[in-house]
Amino acid sequence: MQFGIFSVGDVTPDPTTGRTPTERERIKAMVAIALKAEEVGLDVFATGEHHNPPFVPSSPTTMLGYIAARTEKLVLSTSTTLITTNDPVKIAEDFAMLQHLADGRVDLMMGRGNTGPVYPWFGKDIREGINLAIENYALLHRLWREDVVDWEGRFRTPLQGFTSTPRPLDDVPPFVWHGSIRSPEIAEQAAYYGDGFFHNNIFWTADHTKRMIDLYRTRYAHYGHGTPEQAIVGLGGQVFMRKNSQDAVREFRPYFDVAPVYGHGPSLEEFTRQTPLTVGSPQQVIERTLSFRDYAGDYQRQLFLMDHAGLPLKTVLEQLDLLGEEVVPVLREEFAKNRPAGVPDAPTHASLLAGREVTAA
What positions does the domain Luciferase-like occupy (predicted)? Predict the structure, then answer.
């Protein structure tokens, strides 16, 4: 099972000091967080994609390419690649290039994002969001698997005899997760292709998350990719830790209360009861995260959001020390217990290449 972190790259004032980092500081902080993730033994760093303030990660492959040059083991991913507003040809080329530079340590998560105005900015209609996600990914899927593509659809100019370059490393496309919070059509899409399904459950109840994952698992089996238990599932999560749980609550509360995504809404206590947000001791984070298996089944990837709402870099790095030293080692051991033999590990370039070679033989 893989453990890692994801960032949305928000530039948010620190409510305890009133200071807002510069864009340069925030970008450099994201790099420092990725390097720290590898240092403390995490498996994955994922960045979002946004094209509007107060977010900075408008070019994920640029950032991930830089991080690739400074890391050795970390899997580099996205927590959203905007399949609706990006050109599938450019996605195919950019991530294949990154795949070569990173020696295969690359996968990505398709998503529609949560910023409505991005659609007209890139010449798209938000009312076609689902249709764009379906058609654009169908083209991307072919571009990585066919050397020469003839294609015609509704949302971009036709392609005739087109070859995307560079070709995927070892002719193995990057593994794709389809991320969705609320759209069953995206769970269906992930199942149809036999790709991974990532439920970023930081805002939703366990019942909702279970329904989405169960749908994906059922449809994965329907399309002949394996049993429901063999489907590839990832979950988001959100934590803030201190050795003493009271200290964690006291320190995190001012950040929670004015956070751009949920500030000025439910209280911290209400939100932690209703969603997977965990604010407390490392042991509380361990117990809460282990409980995800009760409704998600045995899954493959757990990513945590830790660097948002104006938290200073020093605090985030302290959080990563706790995560890597006290939390993840226990989670690895506990999640491995009683894990059925047929449940696959998280796909990597090496495992996908080995599987292709076995199939060819």
Answer: 1-294
